[in-house]
Protein backbone atom coordinates (compact mmCIF):
# COMPACT_ATOMS: atom_id res chain seq x y z
CA UNK A 1 0.00 0.00 0.00
CA UNK A 2 1.44 3.43 -0.85
CA UNK A 3 2.55 5.35 2.25
CA UNK A 4 -0.04 8.11 1.80
CA UNK A 5 -2.93 5.65 1.54
CA UNK A 6 -1.99 3.79 4.75
CA UNK A 7 -4.66 3.87 7.45
CA UNK A 8 -3.68 5.35 10.78
CA UNK A 9 -4.23 3.22 13.86
CA UNK A 10 -6.60 5.32 16.03
CA UNK A 11 -4.93 4.02 19.20
CA UNK A 12 -1.67 5.61 18.01
CA UNK A 13 -3.30 9.02 17.57
CA UNK A 14 -2.66 11.64 20.23
CA UNK A 15 -5.54 12.50 22.52
CA UNK A 16 -5.96 16.23 22.19
CA UNK A 17 -7.68 18.19 24.88
CA UNK A 18 -10.62 20.14 23.54
CA UNK A 19 -11.28 23.57 24.99
CA UNK A 20 -14.59 25.29 24.41
CA UNK A 21 -16.28 28.31 25.91
CA UNK A 22 -20.03 28.65 26.29
CA UNK A 23 -21.68 29.91 23.13
CA UNK A 24 -18.74 29.27 20.82
CA UNK A 25 -19.61 28.21 17.30
CA UNK A 26 -17.89 25.04 16.13
CA UNK A 27 -17.36 23.32 12.80
CA UNK A 28 -17.48 19.53 13.17
CA UNK A 29 -16.60 16.66 10.86
CA UNK A 30 -17.81 13.16 11.72
CA UNK A 31 -16.64 10.24 9.59
CA UNK A 32 -18.25 6.84 9.15
CA UNK A 33 -16.45 3.77 10.47
CA UNK A 34 -14.07 2.54 7.77
CA UNK A 35 -15.35 5.32 5.51
CA UNK A 36 -18.31 3.09 4.63
CA UNK A 37 -20.72 5.09 2.43
CA UNK A 38 -23.89 4.18 4.31
CA UNK A 39 -25.22 7.75 4.02
CA UNK A 40 -25.69 7.10 0.29
CA UNK A 41 -29.09 5.73 1.31
CA UNK A 42 -31.74 8.51 1.54
CA UNK A 43 -33.48 6.63 4.36
CA UNK A 44 -30.23 6.67 6.35
CA UNK A 45 -29.88 10.42 5.74
CA UNK A 46 -33.40 11.00 7.03
CA UNK A 47 -32.53 9.06 10.20
CA UNK A 48 -29.32 11.05 10.67
CA UNK A 49 -31.23 14.34 10.40
CA UNK A 50 -33.86 13.01 12.83
CA UNK A 51 -31.02 12.13 15.24
CA UNK A 52 -29.70 15.67 14.92
CA UNK A 53 -33.13 17.07 15.84
CA UNK A 54 -33.44 14.65 18.78
CA UNK A 55 -29.98 15.63 20.02
CA UNK A 56 -30.93 19.30 19.82
CA UNK A 57 -33.80 18.56 22.20
CA UNK A 58 -31.48 16.98 24.77
CA UNK A 59 -28.38 19.15 24.28
CA UNK A 60 -29.69 22.45 22.90
CA UNK A 61 -27.69 24.16 20.18
CA UNK A 62 -28.16 26.62 17.35
CA UNK A 63 -27.92 24.69 14.09
CA UNK A 64 -26.26 26.85 11.46
CA UNK A 65 -25.33 24.42 8.68
CA UNK A 66 -24.99 20.78 7.74
CA UNK A 67 -24.14 18.54 4.84
CA UNK A 68 -24.40 14.75 4.75
CA UNK A 69 -22.13 12.93 2.31
CA UNK A 70 -21.87 9.17 1.76
CA UNK A 71 -19.03 8.65 4.27
CA UNK A 72 -18.92 11.78 6.43
CA UNK A 73 -20.84 14.84 7.52
CA UNK A 74 -20.07 18.42 8.44
CA UNK A 75 -21.94 20.57 10.93
CA UNK A 76 -21.68 24.18 12.02
CA UNK A 77 -23.41 24.74 15.34
CA UNK A 78 -23.33 26.75 18.54
CA UNK A 79 -24.04 24.76 21.72
CA UNK A 80 -26.13 26.67 24.24
CA UNK A 81 -24.46 27.69 27.54
CA UNK A 82 -23.56 24.70 29.69
CA UNK A 83 -23.71 22.22 26.78
CA UNK A 84 -20.43 20.41 26.15
CA UNK A 85 -19.53 19.61 22.54
CA UNK A 86 -18.25 16.08 23.33
CA UNK A 87 -21.55 15.27 25.10
CA UNK A 88 -23.53 16.65 22.18
CA UNK A 89 -21.50 14.64 19.64
CA UNK A 90 -21.79 11.45 21.71
CA UNK A 91 -25.55 11.89 22.06
CA UNK A 92 -25.89 12.49 18.33
CA UNK A 93 -23.87 9.38 17.42
CA UNK A 94 -25.94 7.22 19.80
CA UNK A 95 -29.23 8.68 18.51
CA UNK A 96 -28.20 8.07 14.89
CA UNK A 97 -27.12 4.50 15.73
CA UNK A 98 -30.42 3.79 17.51
CA UNK A 99 -32.56 5.32 14.76
CA UNK A 100 -30.75 3.47 12.00
CA UNK A 101 -30.95 0.22 13.95
CA UNK A 102 -34.73 0.65 14.53
CA UNK A 103 -35.19 1.35 10.82
CA UNK A 104 -33.24 -1.81 9.95
CA UNK A 105 -30.55 0.24 8.21
CA UNK A 106 -27.57 -0.57 10.45
CA UNK A 107 -26.44 -2.87 13.19
CA UNK A 108 -23.31 -1.43 14.82
CA UNK A 109 -20.12 0.49 14.28
CA UNK A 110 -21.42 3.44 12.28
CA UNK A 111 -18.96 6.14 13.28
CA UNK A 112 -15.25 6.56 13.83
CA UNK A 113 -14.58 7.08 17.51
CA UNK A 114 -13.12 10.53 17.07
CA UNK A 115 -14.21 13.63 15.25
CA UNK A 116 -12.61 16.81 13.95
CA UNK A 117 -13.56 20.15 15.44
CA UNK A 118 -12.66 23.75 14.77
CA UNK A 119 -13.75 26.66 16.93
CA UNK A 120 -15.03 29.37 14.60
CA UNK A 121 -13.08 32.55 15.35
CA UNK A 122 -15.05 35.37 13.73
CA UNK A 123 -17.63 36.29 11.06
CA UNK A 124 -15.22 35.65 8.17
CA UNK A 125 -14.32 32.23 9.58
CA UNK A 126 -18.04 31.48 10.01
CA UNK A 127 -18.78 32.46 6.39
CA UNK A 128 -15.83 30.43 5.11
CA UNK A 129 -17.03 27.32 6.96
CA UNK A 130 -20.60 27.79 5.71
CA UNK A 131 -19.25 27.93 2.17
CA UNK A 132 -17.08 24.88 2.80
CA UNK A 133 -20.03 22.87 4.14
CA UNK A 134 -22.34 23.83 1.29
CA UNK A 135 -19.77 23.34 -1.48
CA UNK A 136 -18.57 19.97 -0.15
CA UNK A 137 -20.74 17.72 -2.40
CA UNK A 138 -19.33 19.52 -5.46
CA UNK A 139 -15.80 19.28 -4.09
CA UNK A 140 -16.19 15.51 -3.79
CA UNK A 141 -17.56 15.19 -7.34
CA UNK A 142 -21.01 14.02 -6.23
CA UNK A 143 -22.84 16.79 -8.11
CA UNK A 144 -22.03 19.71 -10.42
CA UNK A 145 -24.10 22.37 -8.63
CA UNK A 146 -24.30 22.72 -4.84
CA UNK A 147 -28.03 23.54 -4.81
CA UNK A 148 -28.90 20.13 -6.25
CA UNK A 149 -27.62 18.23 -3.17
CA UNK A 150 -30.64 17.28 -1.03
CA UNK A 151 -28.75 16.62 2.23
CA UNK A 152 -27.50 20.14 2.87
CA UNK A 153 -28.70 23.27 4.59
CA UNK A 154 -27.89 25.37 1.50
CA UNK A 155 -31.55 25.67 0.42
CA UNK A 156 -32.46 27.24 3.78
CA UNK A 157 -29.68 29.80 3.40
CA UNK A 158 -30.78 30.52 -0.17
CA UNK A 159 -34.37 31.02 1.01
CA UNK A 160 -33.06 33.65 3.46
CA UNK A 161 -31.27 35.42 0.61
CA UNK A 162 -27.75 34.71 1.86
CA UNK A 163 -26.77 32.68 -1.20
CA UNK A 164 -28.01 33.35 -4.75
CA UNK A 165 -29.64 30.45 -6.67
CA UNK A 166 -26.54 29.96 -8.82
CA UNK A 167 -24.13 29.80 -5.87
CA UNK A 168 -21.84 26.78 -5.85
CA UNK A 169 -21.25 26.29 -9.56
CA UNK A 170 -17.59 27.11 -8.94
CA UNK A 171 -15.54 26.89 -5.76
CA UNK A 172 -15.78 30.05 -3.66
CA UNK A 173 -12.43 31.79 -3.48
CA UNK A 174 -12.44 31.93 0.31
CA UNK A 175 -12.50 28.13 0.71
CA UNK A 176 -9.56 27.42 -1.57
CA UNK A 177 -6.88 25.77 0.48
CA UNK A 178 -9.27 24.37 3.09
CA UNK A 179 -8.83 20.63 3.34
CA UNK A 180 -10.95 17.70 4.41
CA UNK A 181 -10.37 17.02 8.06
TrEMBL record:
GO molecular function: sequence-specific DNA binding; transposase activity
Transposase IS200-like domain segment(s): 21-136
InterPro entries associated with the record: RAYT_transposase, Transposase_17, Transposase_17_sf
Signal sequence range: none
Top-level taxon of the source organism: Bacteria
GO biological process: DNA transposition
NCBIfam families for this protein: REP_Tyr_transpos
Protein name, per record: Transposase
Organism: Denitratimonas tolerans
Amino acid sequence: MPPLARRIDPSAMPRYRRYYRDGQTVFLTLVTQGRRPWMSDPAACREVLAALRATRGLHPFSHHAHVLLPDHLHLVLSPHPGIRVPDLVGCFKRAAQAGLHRAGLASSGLWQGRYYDHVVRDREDFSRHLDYVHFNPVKHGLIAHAASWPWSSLAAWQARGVYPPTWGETAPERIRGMSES
